[in-house]
Structures are given as structure tokens and as C-alpha cells.
Amino acid sequence: MASRDPVADLRRIAFLLEAANEPTYRVRAFRTAMATVGRLAPDELAERARAGRLRELPGIGEVLERTIGESLRGEEPVYLRRLEATGGRPVAEGAAALCAALRGDAHVHSDWSDGGSPIEEMAEAARGLGHAWIVLTDHSPRLTVANGLSPERLRDQLEVVDRLNRELSPFRILAGIEVDINPDGTLDQELALLERLDLVVGSVHSELRMPPGLMTRRLVTALANPHLDVLGHVTGRMVTGRRHRPPSEFDAEIVFAAAERFDKAIEINSRPERLDPPKRLLRLAVEAGCRFAIDSDAHAPGQLAWQPNGCERAFLCGVEAAAVVTTWDADAVLAWTRRHRSGGT
Questions:
Q1: I need a surface site. Which of 8, 22, 41, 213 has the fewest CB within 10 A?
Q2: Is residue 174 part of a domain?
């Protein structure tokens, strides 16, 4: 494959960043790299790329090294492709359009586990935001610190959800759970109960520092489970506050390939302290062809309004509305999760 012109690709990226009103420092980084690359002879640039020495050049970091390398290999850089997909629209405009397409929220907690408000209050708040549905995803038994639901309590909750759906119609509360993904990749709830649920979010809440190989196996095993639909806050990171925590390490390409293979969704978690996955991984998931769920992970009514955080990140990373299950109506969501239970048939 013939080499592209990395200077032209860097120039185009800088132009699109400016058109989208991105921060000046980001634009400057690409223009500085453009000037640096432009001063090198083509042979020297190619040799540096082959030897992994691009980062020795001033202002060239991981993202720019990857972008230049892709261009030299004749590939349209992923960063450029993502920007072209957004059409240079301002971030606020693109994120707003994605938010306007949302029909529901697939990750919502109540006071049955570690939320602060009754189920009905969460549903009313979501309806007030214009949603047509939410998934009630209180925690599973293993997470005792969050008052996880035993099988008996979950059965009781399902009866409450049935009653509320009769009262709130046409708004719908989909029966769900945020089930813990155990260290071996199994799910922390009775199989018969998982069968009864409309949608299952699976998340890692323990042993987040497992060796990367074991964490990769853990996540892939969970994604292969027909009772899991959405992989929640995939890296487990915390980026603000007292609970600051680095992301778990795993082979993201393998995990996202599994999500695409089994038609599961990667959650774009909108909580300000999570903003998970990081943009680098979110772009990889886009490239892998994954579906997504833009969720609030709300534990109180006002937190349901956090979804714009996820919409902004999704737009920046080239996520299309059609790939976001929370833009679908409830019947489409249920048809999707039922295909998982039936083995994709």
C-alpha cells in the first residue's frame, strides 16, 4: 500500500479540530507536529517510524506517533477518519443531536440497592427528561456494600416493576440488574432470574487490578454469556474525587472483538467520576464495530441528566446514533436482548 502524505493528514486534522471549535492546545499539537514532520526528509521520517523513534522528535506523543505511522503505511489515520465522520460539526451541536436521539437509559439505580430514591421517582424523573423507558439495574448479591439484591429481593422487585408499568404506561421500566462479573467471568445471580430480566448490565467491581491476561479472559467470558447484554464501565476507572483509581488493564482489541462477535453493547458511562471508557478505548470500540449504551448510571433523579457527558464523548469518538441502543425504542431493545438469550437466532 502506497504511503499517504502525513503532513497533509496532520493539516487536515488540525483544520477539522478548528472547525469543531476544539481547544487551541489540541490544534496546536497537530500543527506543531505538521511542521516537525515537514522538516524531515521522507527517508528519515520513514526510518524513524520503522525504528519506533518518532517520539524522540519534539512534540510527538503516542497519538501523533500512531497517526503518522498509519499515514506512512497508506492508511487513513483513525483520528482523521473519526473527525471526518463528525463532519467538522461543533462538539456542542453534535453531542446535542445525539442526546436528542436518546429514548432511554439502560443503567439506573434505586433505593433498593445503593440509590437514593424509590423506583417510581426515578421513572418519573426519566419521563420528565423525555425518555420513553429506563432499565432498573440495582446491584447483585455479591456487592454487599451496595446492598445488592438477593434472589428473593429481586423477585419482589420484579413484582413492583410490573405494578409500576401498569400505572406509568406508556412509559416503561425494563426489568434489569447490574450484575457483578465474578473473577472467573461468571455472573453473580441465579440463572433462572437472569432469564426473566429484560436487560442485564454486567460490571467488574472487585479485583480490578487483575493481571491483564486474566482480566481479558474475565471480560470475554462474560460477553460470551447469553445473559449479559451491556458491559458496564468497562475499565472501572475513577478520574475525580477521593476514589481516584486507574483503569483496569486488558487487551481491548480482544474484548471489543468479543463484544462485536456476540452483539453486546459497550457502555459509555456518563458519571463525571467515571467517564468510562477512556476516549482511546472508545475509539477502538468504534473501529471494532461495537454497539454502545450511553447511560447515566444514575443513583438519584438529578443524575439522570448526566447523559450529555456520555453523548459528548461519543460524538468526539465518532459513535453513530444508530449504534447506540439507548436511541432505540423499548421494543427494539427487547428484541435485541432476546436474540442473546436464544443464541442469536
A1: 41
A2: yes
Domain residues for the domain of 55 are 6-88
Q: Give residues with Cβ within 8 angstroms of 254, minimum separation 6.
A: 216, 220
What pLDDT digit, counting tens, does each position of 33-85 carry?
999 999 999 999 999 999 999 999 998 988 899 999 999 999 999 888 877 77
Entry pTM: 0.78
- 3-state SS assignment for residue 127: helix
Find out whether 90 and 20 touch, Cβ atoms under 8 Å: yes
Write the pLDDT tens digit of every residue in 128-171.
999 999 999 999 999 999 999 999 999 999 999 999 999 999 99
Burial of 260 (0-12, 13-18, 19+ CB in 10 A): middle
Tell me the residue ranges of DSSP E strands in the chain.
Answer: 104-108, 133-136, 172-180, 199-203, 230-231, 265-269, 291-295
Overall number of domains in the chain: 2
CA–CA distance, 335 with 285 (Å, rounded to integer): 23
Could you give the angle at which helices 62-72 and 42-51 cross, rounded to 10 degrees? 120
Segment (H or E) for 92: helix 91-101
Q: Which three cell numbers stand for residue 149?
A: 439484591
CA distances from 84 to 9, 134, 318 (A): 11, 33, 9
Cα–Cα distances in Å, from 8 out to 102, 231, 316? 36, 38, 21
Per the CB < 8 A criterion, the answer to whether 318 and 286 are in contact is yes
Is 1 a domain residue?
Answer: no
Do residue 42 and residue 77 come from a single domain? yes
DSSP line for 211-231: -HHHHHHHHHHHHHSTT--EE
* Bridge partner residues of 269 (DSSP): 276, 295
Identify which of 31, 150, 86, 58 has the alpha carbon closest to the alpha carbon of residue 313.
Answer: 86
Q: Quote the CA–CA distance of 339 and 335 in Å, as a whole number.
A: 6
